[in-house]
Amino acid sequence: VSNHSEFEGRMTPGYNFISNNNNAADNHGHGTSCAGIAAAKGNNSSGIAGVCWDCLIMPIKVLDSGGYGDDTGISNGIQWASDNDASVISMSLGGGGYVSYTESAINYATDNGSVVIAASGNDNSGSVSYPSAYSNCISVGALSPCNERKSFSSCDGENYWGSNYGAGLDFLSPGVRIHTTTMSGGYTSEFNGTSSACPHAAGIAGLIKSESNNISAYDVRLIMQQSSDDIGSIGFDTQTGYGRVNAYNSMFNL
User: Fold this and answer.
1) Which residues are CB-neighbours of 49 under 8 A, at least 6 positions away?
2) 244 and 147 in contact (C-beta within 8 Å)?
3) Among the residues of 65-193, which ranges form H helices?
4) Quick check: 124 and 161 in contact, CB under 8 A?
5) Dist CA 63 CA 148 (whole Å)
6) Using the 8-state DSSP alphabet, how is residue 147 labeled?
7) Cα–Cα dist 197/206, whole Å
8) Where are the beta strands (DSSP E) in 12-128?
């Protein structure tokens, strides 16, 4: 991430829980693309603009070069980020089941004021993935380009994946063919999945925290839910949660 012009001067010290050192540079590519959606520089006549395009970025490496990690590293990363004043913790990762110490780490971070957000998962399943399934973690699903939950049959024609849904889903944000940054220093127009939906929501949380720094993580979640554009069934529903995230409404409702 640190080598990309879109993040120049806005990287704060992070940590690598794979190698247990301070070098949290991306060696997979996924993190750079997620960071671009949330926080690529705006108004610079170049590339793309992230949702919270003046936000600082704290890289926390909990997955290896192959994209694999474990609950211990993820939990430690959550706690470290919160202890080091991360306003928003965005996790475009998922897998495994309930782990008590991961839930404890999320509860700790949330009580400490850090907004914890994770991807709902890409299995077209009727239950959201962990860690997004933990009660204090915001679960973000993916929209298709036609304002519907991304599914095997949604309008984009990508019949090989769908966004997980269910009672634990908070809301949806764009998740198909997203333009963002790449590890090589360039850009892609093909970033997909709830991994791309999650940082859209994280960027909005960053905007809210930027405007109202003392707001609790619980209130940020409530504002984002209440500010979503209701789609699907009236009110909350398991297919779309509270609806489609809306950055303008979230700021307007502060």
Assistant:
1) 40, 41, 42, 43
2) yes
3) 71-83, 100-111
4) yes
5) 30
6) S
7) 15
8) 15-16, 60-61, 88-91, 115-119
Q: First-to-last CA distance in the chain?
A: 31
Task: Provide the residue type at 186 as one letter.
Answer: G
pLDDT digits (tens, 9 = 90+) for 53-67: 999 999 999 999 999
CA atoms within 13 A of residue 169's CA, in its CB half-sphere: 35
AA letter at 20: N
For residue 174, the one-letter residue type is P
d(CA 41, CA 43): 7
209-246 per-position pLDDT tens digit: 999 989 999 999 999 999 999 999 999 999 999 999 99
Q: Give the residue from 199, 192, 153 showing the smallest Cα distance to 175.
A: 192
Model-level pTM greater than 0.85?
yes
Q: What is the pLDDT of residue 253?
A: 84
State pLDDT tens for residues 1-55. Answer: 567 999 999 999 999 999 999 999 999 999 999 999 999 999 999 999 999 999 9
Triad 170, 140, 40: Cα angle to 5°: 135
Q: What is the pLDDT of residues 83-137, one digit of tens each?
A: 999 999 999 999 999 999 999 999 999 999 999 999 999 999 999 999 999 999 9
In angstroms, the CA 159 to CA 138 distance is 26
Q: How far apart are CA 94 and CA 133, in angstroms?
A: 10
Q: What local confidence, expressed as pLDDT, does residue 160 receive?
A: 97
- Those residues with Cβ within 8 angstroms of residue 243's Cβ, 6 or more apart along the chain or in another chain: 171, 172, 228, 229, 230, 231, 232
Count of CA atoms in the C-beta half-sphere (13 A) of 212 = 15
Closest CA to 57 of 30, 27, 24, 20: 24
Assign 11 to helix, strand or coil.
strand
